[in-house]
Amino acid sequence: MYGEGESEPVPEQVAQFAQEAYQLHMMECLLTVMPRLEFEARKDIVQIFVALLQRSIGSRRPTVEYVWTHPAILRMAIRGYDVPDIALNTGIILHEMLQYELLAKLFLYSDDLYRFPQYIETTSFSISCDAFKNLRDALLCHRSIAAEFLNMHYDRFFHMYTQLLDSQNYVTRRQSLKLLGELLVDRAHYATMIRYVSDEENLKRIMNALRDRSKHIQLEAFHVFKVFVANPKKTPAVESILRRNRSRLLTFLQGFLPDRTGMLAMAHPPLPPITAILTHVLAFSLALPSLSVVLILSHIFFLADESFIDERQYIIHIIRYVHYA
Length: 325
Description:
Elements: H1 11-23, H2 26-33, H3 39-54, H4 62-69, H5 72-78, H6 87-97, H7 101-108, H8 116-122, H9 125-140, H10 143-152, H11 154-165, H12 170-184, H13 190-197, H14 200-209, H15 215-230, H16 236-244, H17 246-254, H18 258-261, H19 273-284, H20 290-304, H21 308-321
């Protein structure tokens, strides 16, 4: 598959090997026997899988098409996380599979997706991180496929994902909040964002995370919380929570992560010019179609990331001055 020495592989031999691999169901067999093999042999199997998956004929990926029609191969790669000795090997194979849209779709629509809280929560640190990385890649690398999946399976997916957000494990919780924030400000996930920030239980969960002992978790929670606040089409339940907690939120946010921002110059500093502009834009967006709203939100958070102080003061301004009907 890789040639001998410094010589390039012979295409005819590679094609013959691939055809025999398909006909003899070699990929399934290799995954089955992997737990019984030595470390170096497992590494060789990983190289074989990567080479087969990367093989192309013009614009076609024959092995990707083969795995699509033989989903048991993907299932076996996922369930490699059940076997600690081979978990990182099959994790590499799964990672390679997820680089291709067709197999990422197969992964997302598989029932085995819902095994990932178990893999992330109950395994060793290295296996947990590997499993989360593959979950993250599946959701972020192929945006249109992931957006379609989340629209169709929102309830089931977030029932699973909430387990990660509520984890007692610091790394799991921080990674989950960070990924959630990335999803919610992605234009491709507008429908998911609106549905998520319309649920008052989600807002309560994120507000609790703002008070976590870890400053890193607080910061990731803030990046999700700001989406709830800046959304110009809040549900009555979400508006009610923000209104009832207005005073406490203002007090909390004024002193939020002071070591990151330094002391505030004034108790009620004037809004920076860009923040004032965005405030008017956000108010105007109430009369705009949904697509325009998500474009505005995306620009707000792209610009706001340049300065945490501006970002925080912008959220404080909305909570203090915007009237919740």
